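Input record, target 12 of the design panel.
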């Protein structure tokens, strides 16, 4: 007689990881897709899924160099890609930047893991914005650290609260994460705020980890200011890649650039390279597109300008929220997301996870609950701006309809679906 064996249990630290962007709601959306329902996936910034193609010049660069892509590449990345990124930083005022300060990875996600794993001892603290892109919190936790969330409140246009950050610093604090332009809020930080963050990091000897993957996606009069030129007095690690600005998510090409106090960081940088060597190399074919991407015509400018796809989609969301009885919106000035909130005075019992489940089941629209981004408030949700403007206008019409239904006739939706973060 066979003895029943207990289930295989995952590591306990996984319980502390939140990534609802691709969690329980996304799994339910796939089930609905397979049942034949037409689900509008507003949960993820995936340009190719909405018809936004990688520039043709980049595709040709990859094809031309396929014959050079069959062997492992250097663990730090191929020279033309690293040199192109270094030259971009030179053009931003860091004229002494050289290729050896650049590391190429399988997207920014892999590099985030490598730089944290090379740094953290158990219990070390990393200051992470709230709301955050949850990869940062997860990567800190998975590498035995403690994510300490600093507020970027809606009342301050989702800008960092500098004095609150200062009060959170302890002897165990090792690094400060800055996400600019911001995911999920769309905030773009002005230069004075960035200077204050850089000064705070230098004062307390913190490494600056600057997630700048959306650097060229700014709207209206917003201007992206890179952190590295402002942070000469501490180590600054700036992250970028091909996924968003260049619409090449599937190519998995990102980079990290080490600037600032490099003389104190040599052992740390060698540790990051050692971990990079363990995975042999980043995706080689995609790296051949970096030089073309950074040196050629920047087609993202057409998408974010008035009349461009992203600009018009953003405007559709702004207009829908302005018309809404229920929704407030801090206008997103960058990136490819909006982070609306439901007015608590109109719906005091609103719950973001329950609403997201109801919206998916009955309106076939997939959004991400705002509390998934490591904030306590449960009245926000995130959507991507990538669909066409008319599709977003239709989606917000359905969102408004559901909010009307819930406001006029409260419904028990506790048992619709398990919406806790995966």
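The sequence produced for target 12 reads:
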């Amino acid at each position: 007689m066979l003895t029943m064996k207990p289930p295989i249990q995952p590591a306990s630290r996984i319980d502390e990881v939140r990534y609802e962007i691709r969690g329980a709601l996304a799994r339910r959306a796939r089930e609905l897709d397979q049942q034949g329902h037409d689900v509008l996936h507003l949960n993820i910034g995936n340009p190719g899924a909405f018809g936004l193609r990688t520039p043709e010049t980049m595709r040709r660069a990859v094809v031309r160099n396929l014959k050079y892509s069959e062997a492992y590449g250097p663990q730090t990345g191929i020279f033309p890609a690293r040199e192109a990124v270094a030259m971009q930083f030179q053009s931003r005022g860091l004229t002494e930047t050289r290729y050896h300060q650049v590391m190429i990875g399988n997207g920014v996600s892999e590099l985030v893991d490598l730089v944290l794993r090379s740094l953290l001892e158990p219990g070390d603290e990393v200051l992470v914005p709230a709301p955050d892109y949850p990869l940062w919190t997860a990567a800190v936790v998975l590498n035995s650290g403690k994510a300490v969330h600093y507020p970027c409140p809606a009342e301050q246009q989702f800008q960092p609260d500098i004095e609150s950050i200062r009060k959170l610093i302890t002897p165990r604090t090792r690094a400060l994460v800055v996400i600019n332009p911001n995911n999920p809020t769309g905030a773009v930080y002005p230069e004075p705020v960035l200077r204050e963050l850089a000064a705070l990091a230098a004062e307390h000897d913190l490494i600056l980890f600057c997630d700048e993957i959306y650097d060229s996606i700014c709207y209206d009069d917003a201007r992206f200011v890179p952190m590295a030129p402002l942070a000469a007095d501490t180590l600054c690690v700036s992250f970028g890649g091909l996924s968003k600005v260049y619409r090449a998510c599937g190519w998995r090409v990102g980079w990290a650039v080490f600037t600032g106090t490099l003389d104190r960081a040599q052992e740390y940088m060698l540790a990051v390279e050692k971990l990079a060597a363990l995975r042999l190399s980043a995706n080689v074919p995609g790296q051949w597109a970096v030089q073309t991407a950074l040196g050629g015509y920047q087609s993202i400018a057409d998408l974010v300008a008035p009349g461009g796809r992203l600009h018009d989609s953003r405007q559709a969301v702004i207009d829908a929220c302005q018309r809404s009885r229920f929704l407030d919106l801090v206008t997103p000035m960058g990136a490819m997301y909006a982070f609306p909130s439901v007015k608590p005075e109109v719906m005091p019992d609103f719950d973001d996870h329950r609403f997201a489940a109801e919206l998916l089941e009955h309106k076939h629209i997939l959004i991400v609950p705002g509390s998934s981004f490591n904030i306590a408030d449960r009245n926000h949700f995130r959507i991507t701006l990538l669909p066409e403007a008319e599709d977003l206008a239709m989606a917000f019409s359905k969102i408004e309809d559901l909010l009307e239904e819930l406001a006029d006739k409260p419904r028990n939706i506790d048992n619709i679906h398990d919406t806790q973060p995966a």
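The domain at 12-52+302-408 is CATH 3.90.1150.10 (Aspartate Aminotransferase, domain 1).
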